[in-house]
Predict the 3D structure of the following.
Amino acid sequence: MTLHPILAALRKHKSGVVLIALQIALTLAIVCNAVFIIAGRVERVNRPTGIEESNLLLVTQQYVGAPTGDDEASIDELDSRLRRDVAVLRQLPGVVDVTSVNSVPLLQSAWNGGVAIKPDAQFSFDSKDFSTFYFLDDHGLATLGAKLVAGRNFKPEEVMHKGFRTSIETPVVILTQALANQLYPDGKALGKVIYVGGSKAPSTIIGIVERMQSPGLGQWANSFAWNATLIPQRMDAAFTRYAVRTQPGQLESVMRAAAPALYKADPMRVLDDDGGVRSFAQIRAAAYQGDVGMAVLMGIISLILIAITAAGIVGLTSFWVGQRRKQIGVRRALGARKVDILRYFQTENFLIAGIGALFGIVLAVGLNLWLMQHMAMQRLPIALVLAGVALVLVLGQLAVWVPARRAADVPPVVATRSV
Amino acid sequence: MLKMTHLSKVYRTEVVETYALRDFNLDVTEGEFVAVTGPSGSGKTTFLTIAGLLETFTGGSYHLDGVDVSNLNDNARSKIRNEKIGFIFQAFNLIPDLNVFDNVEVPLRYRGMKASERKQRIMDALERVGLASRHKHYPAELSGGQQQRVAIARALAGSPRLLLADEPTGNLDTQMARGVLELMEEIHRDGATIVMVTHDPELAARAQRNVHVIDGQVIDLAEEPRFHALKAGGRE
Amino acid sequence: MFAYYVNLGLRSLKRNPALTALMVMTIAFGVAASMTTWSVFRAVSGDPIPWKSAQLFVPQVDNWGPKHTGKTGNPPEAMSWPDAMNLMRAHRAHYQSALYAISPAIVPTRAGQHPFYAGGHAVFGEFFPMVDVPFAYGGPWSASDDAQRARVAVISSKLNDKLFDGANSVGKTLNVDGTDYRVVGVMASWNPQPRFYDIVNSGGFNAQQEDLLLPFNTAIDLQMGNNGNTNCYESPKQPGFVGLMHSECVWISFQVELDDAAQVAAYTQFLDGYAREQQQAGRFSWAPNNRLRSLPEWLAYQHVVPDDTRTSLLVALGLLLVCLVNTAGLLLAKFLRRSAEIGVRRALGASKGEIVRQFLIEAGMVGVAGGVLGLLLTGLGVLGVGWVMPHEIAVLARIDTALLALTVLLSVLVAALAGLYPTLRAAAVQPAWQLKSN
């Protein structure tokens, strides 16, 4: 089959061809970028936090009328309350382990700061040696389910306590693998020292955990998402958090029992109905609600786009088939087989979709560049664009099938009838 | 009523110029029934489209009802078509989506007539072609002859001064053709000017005057029959 | 004639119901997606205080210097306590207030009720007239209350309902974190979004109500914790709350009202002078690096409109554009298929204008139908926006007459635009064509 008659026909229907090609180009451009956004969000949401997320819950509470925690006596007072709360939680049936903790991954509330291998390092927000600080006790690793890959856990006697606004000072730390490798690229961080949060005193790295995501999810926090420094300290303040690991299947019952037990120990506290006791699944859902939503929205829009474009191709091709019935009849009368007619329309669609796709590649890249310039967006991978091209070509062929079949079914006798 | 003087129509493409009409002269007086005949390709249809203001011409002049129409804009031409000219097409050209009544109504709609007057005129016109009882039918439900009668009713409804017919019986069998022709003669008797294009000599014979067109020029058969034969032989 | 064309349009649209349904749905989906995302965009990009935003300014003082601010050299987005206090003391603006986010516990007087959080801010008394806080009962506290660190409070009507059953509670006592405060004012419903006076800590949008406003000095005196970000380039030299107060850590928002250009210029000059003073005193070792942004500039600088919201709107508008092109293609096919009818109408005396009117009305009818379906889908979209947008943003999207009117208008506009080219093509059909082809 030669292209000549098809090209001649396309020239005759110039505006229709332009409209379909334009539609295919726009669809390709938008769907490529939308799918890229979806892929980015899915990847982001699926990042493992490095902790064991099931059977884990977090209690957030605040003592009312508590001492400020600025002097030794009030710090001790707060610390005793904190240890009592931990003991209360530990005694709940179904609880495996408990640790006091300042934050957990994805919580979006963090203490971040600089870490350095030398004292007196200066930090600005451009520095890359940032880390989040997790303050937890010797039960921290077990409760959160972080995996130790080198060294050892904190010993009970290493766990200290400090006031909320006292600066960090710790003889020992555990780092995430990512941070350890960043500070000591030779991979021999264990046993070496670092200076945490501008502290003048060195902290020895006694252990390395495989992975532990930072609580923050913003652009800045994301730049050091895998840098975490674990510090064996109870943070004494009116505001405290406890991570609780439960036995499988006991999460719900522990969540129900936690607040009443804590109120019983001390009613002068706030345990918010919404955020006081949350499972890690709830924390994760809240953290990624926007990302999941964005992916869903982009998915819906892409589906609508594809459906509309496919329907548009069906509609316009049907019109062309109707318009060319006589011509088709003549061709059939002159010996064209059904398959030839089918091919004709398929080839025609392939040409139009091809032109649209070429233009669409340009549009897709252009839109991507614009998004990169004006919004936080990565460069569109070329493989995705090519997949998009394949998609619109296949979509075009699928859409043209119905009207093309109808064209092939035009009987040769039509040629002899007047319109 | 209709006066064409040295009228020409040229179709130009990049390579050739084709004269569809050249030095075309015709004068139809009010109340005349003229048949325009000629072989296919002679230019008689071009003449009719120009006469009906459906197309513009290239040179010469054309006065319709005393008005020089050569420099009128599209809107003015539409208005003249609407008010002064009635068309009867070979293929009837009824709008399939509209029933008989609505089809006849089309030209009246563009005249901004009151609904009551429209209705009166439509029913009168349909009465005249004998189809008043079918005004709710759709074209597809009518025979060819009936469809052409509707088309004639549509042409008559606006009481045009000039009726242009293009092979009005071309798509009809003899029986139906006769009926349509009788109708046209009746309309002529009532005072309308009719110009009918046909290649059927029998049909042409029913007209008051025959004008023969060959190669885009008018040959009055009554005056120069031989010349016609010669020319025809020489050119075709 | 209009009725005639509507009638003709109806017939034409009824003849091919599948195609008509496709066009109507195309327009409805495109418009609904656009209007739904726009309803969110409108909510987050709106001016929270349109009558006054041009007079409200956010000063920034660089107390960190080039070593700590990084490549951009932008001064910190919040203020240290010393700078905030110095600016308050200088009192160079019409109104000014330092403020910081608090979330203390309210202890109910009724037995058996647990304490609960009350989110709010510690502000100066000038804050209330500056941002036009509406009052149901009472009013702001006085300048002397500020100076004397009085234990007074302004509460939201919601908190008033909860604690005092909605009665006029002015003069009543409120237990906050174990300390008694006297209620001086109850706000009428007030929940500006974005939370323009404390963008740094709210990120712009906050589902939490502004329940409690306490005097800034009182909160500082009681060492009430900051419920927002505290950014430091080094640990405070002294421990505790006092250490934080006297550190270069930034944690205080600041807002001023400047009524005209002269005042703005004077305040800019004042800030420069202040920074130079600090330089001379040896606290800053760098040239003055201040900013004074008007509220709209500040909201733009802080990227208050989330990228996702803007991207969603953009992609939805892209969808609408595809819908427009799609409808144009289908209308073109539909109209040109009726070339015969157009030729006859033209021959019978229809002017081009009449043909244009007939077909534009038909396209417009598709638009109206698309608009009606679009209304329904937009309604569903706005109700369902909580599924795809963060909670604090989704709650801001609402259906109102402007949204509904715009939905129908946009549908008709899209249909008319889509119908424009096909209509012009239809009007270009020659009256002679029909005669010749036969």
Summary: The radius of gyration of chain A is 32 Å. Chains A and B do not touch (no CB pair under 8 Å). The first strand of chain A starts at residue 56 and ends at 63. Chain A has a mean pLDDT of 90.
